[in-house]
């Protein structure tokens, strides 16, 4: 089961962190960009090739410290076909290093279309009678719940069949998330609470040996009070927590997403790790060509930050 | 402006129809599949190449009859990188024939990530100082509103800058759409009504000469009563209506999405057109090798069906 693999890796590495791989070309160190642009031109291909180099070196620097990476599909689609090649190669490389890959695509559609998305990222594509092939190969995918269970069930079926996972948006980290998610219905529950109940229910058939389900949820680090309530509603959901670091969420803000056993959540950081070499914390210690070492240092700092906040909480 | 181009093309062709290009490999006639599989193997590439041939012949058969096509991204991602190449080639080919392309991706994310999606499909990707390139090139994109305006604004900015459009999910055609969308808030409005108000408001700066906005909405043909209300709330939104044909929506069900001038909505059909050659209506008249003619016949039948329902309504 995906969720058991995730938990075992979190325990082994003593680190509930996922590294977001959101490679805007601006984040890539100049020496990598210049080499790729020289070889492939200042083109989508040049950018995508630079991103592949950047991602591989980041993965090399952190794979023994973190259980998972989370490539954000938008930052690969932005570079067209070449970007999707970079996405594919990043997934393969990370999985080859023993990392779980959470594709952040927030996919959503209905019936056979949701099934197609699920096959694209989690399952297998049928080409002809008895002939199947994997399109992309992630371990988990983020999905958006606006369409209800019709848009979620095909993914859950593949979670069951192929040991994969999903994380359903519940309460997102952005400022305007309340425009829809905080609306209060006539039974006095907010939309995010109702979505949380659905998520807990939807995941009941794919629970693993630790009591958690391969159907997880997304709850932003920027809403710690809501996290407390959501943690209690979604007893069996693992929570993916974006918003730590660059978006303003602190380790203390994240702890409400965890249970008292230190499990139940995994915290994402993207920019603060990828761009550690540019940050006030690390730029004096690591020059641009040492960007991967800076990323590793930030991963270790974040692990300690989270673990000490969790220790204080228990 | 995207919306003016759409309306002018609808008027010119006297047809408020969009042809969905959702090319599951099962839909592709055997003679096309066999040729492609022979050349490229029974592989993702073979499937994707078959899909390109299928789509191009469909486009050739209908481009003078319809204003737009709507490739559904899930059915391209399902074939991996090769599928994305098929998506890209389909978009280019259709635009070359004067069709507007609505990429159905239901994309959604926050801030700079929504910006990345927008650049991927509607805008341009910055590669270096002053050097930009288009990643994919659609005229419009469907988007999902779970994250609020933070997830929508970057797309609207590109609508304004690049003459593009978006269609925001409001009330989707599937059975379980009510799980979230029909919830009623404490001010006695349903979520889909509230979303509709947002959509009307969000689109106010990109209205064209006919009074409609390049920020449109998605309202399923399967909910005609809700459509009547939504039409009145979203005075300036063009409505993309899925669910006609294979999903059970009739022309009469669609008319509530239109205004009395015959404008205000565009109705999608995918399977009933792509697979017309297999349908009870057409299979006795058109053999498999005449699939494109069957699609054209169904497009013309649908146009007449919609126009006569609209005439009865006015």
Radius of gyration over C-alpha positions of chain A, nearest whole angstrom: 19 Å
Using CB atoms under 8 Å apart, which protein chain pair has the greatest interface? A-B, 73 and 73 residues
CATH fold assignment of chain A? TIM Barrel
CATH architecture tag of chain A: Alpha-Beta Barrel
What structural class results from the helix and strand content of chain A?
A: alpha/beta
End-to-end span of chain A in angstroms? 28 Å
Helix content of chain A: 40-55%
Q: What is the approximate shape of chain A?
A: globular
Q: What oligomeric state is this?
A: homodimer
CATH homologous group name of chain A: Aldolase class I
Write the element-wise H/E pattern of chain A from the N-terminal end onward. HEHHEHHEHEEEHEHHEHEHEHH
Family (chains A, B): Belongs to the OMP decarboxylase family. Type 2 subfamily.
Pfam family, one (chains A, B): OMPdecase
Domain Orotidine 5'-phosphate decarboxylase (chains A, B): 16-297
Keywords (chains A, B): Decarboxylase, Lyase, Pyrimidine biosynthesis
Characterization of the model:
The structure is a homodimer of 314-residue chains. The longest helix of chain A is centred in the last third of the chain and has 23 residues. In chain A, the strands form two sheets. Chain A has an eight-stranded parallel beta barrel with strand order 1-2-3-6-7-8-9-10, surrounded by seven helices. Chain A has a two-stranded antiparallel sheet with strand order 4-5. Chain A has one domain: Alpha-Beta Barrel (TIM Barrel). Chain A contains 13 helices and ten strands. In chain A, helix 3 runs parallel beside helix 5 and helix 6 packs parallel to helix 7. With 314 residues, chain A is α/β, with parallel strands linked by helices. Chain A is globular. At the A-B interface, helix 3, helix 4, helix 5, helix 6 and strand 4 of A face helix 3, helix 4, helix 5, helix 6 and strand 4 of B.
